[in-house]
């Protein structure tokens, strides 16, 4: 198996074949997660433990799909804790792909330690974090806005601008995912259909953006007042794109005074494609890296 060979090479500190920086391979940490579940269920983190990973896979039902994913061992931290970025996206039956501008961070309840066996250290999924003893101890609902994150960056990394250095790469990866799967989403060409997606990203200590996963059933709970205010606005913007084409708003409905927050990233019919050049550096502050990609292996067991 190709994965076993790669695992053993990393265990021997042989990083020649790796496309990711060797700093993320020192501890040889990997994740195993089901391909068709959500809320952080059945995700395992393994620190240089090939035998443990094989036992887990051997215990799973036949013909089920599992993802083996290389763990980013040196992530950017928020106040010494891990976080990921959740961004909503919208796909329409017309082949349009939208990005929702107001994303948010999901934070861990525990200080980051690569060798920790505590899942609340490594996995920032809200449905998992809310069962931890320290849930909400640092941020209400373990969630913060992009604006609050930029305020933190201004203090500890004043050279980093989220909108300028991080968001463009997020959009690139989102468009790549959309193009890779757009022909398999609406196989029966159903009119007036749509899909709301939740994209999860991680930033490493060099400010490189990594795609973690794409969720077809994103969490729409309300962990704090920020999400309580954001979620209805997102749904209203979504309905404006989807429903207003089918049902004209009533005349007595007041006109909206806020701008639509879904930004069109890609549409063949409307000739929109915001994908930047593939020659664009993946690191926002250097041009020394031109072709790096993450490690993702899909297994059927």
Describe this structure in words.
24% of the residues are buried. 27% of the residues lie in helices and 24% in strands. It is globular. The strands form 2 sheets. Strands 4, 5, 6, 7, 8, 9, 10 and 11 form an 8-stranded antiparallel β-sheet that branches. It contains 7 helices and 12 strands. It has helices spanning 2-11, 50-58, 119-122, 126-129, 146-156, 162-185, 225-242; strands spanning 29-34, 44-47, 65-70, 81-92, 97-100, 104-111, 143-145, 194-203, 209-215, 262-267, 272-273, 296-300. The two termini are 13 Å apart. It is α+β, with helices and mostly antiparallel strands. It has a single domain, classed as D-amino Acid Aminotransferase, Chain A, domain 1 (2-Layer Sandwich).
Features of this protein?
D-amino Acid Aminotransferase, Chain A, domain 1; four-stranded antiparallel sheet; 12 strands; globular
As for the number of domains, it is: 1
CATH architecture: 2-Layer Sandwich
Q: In percent, how helical is the residue content?
A: 25-40%
Largest sheet: 8 strands, antiparallel
Order of helices and strands: HEEHEEEEHHEHHEEHEEE
Distance between the termini: 13 Å
Approximately how much beta-strand content do the residues carry?
15-25%
CATH level 3 topology: D-amino Acid Aminotransferase, Chain A, domain 1
Low-confidence stretches: 287-295
Radius of gyration: 20 Å
Q: Identify the overall geometry.
A: globular
Corresponding CATH superfamily: ATP-grasp fold, B domain
Helix segment count? 7
- According to CATH, what is the class? Alpha Beta
Please give the number of β-strands.
12
Structural class: alpha+beta
Look at the structure and give the mean pLDDT. Answer: 88
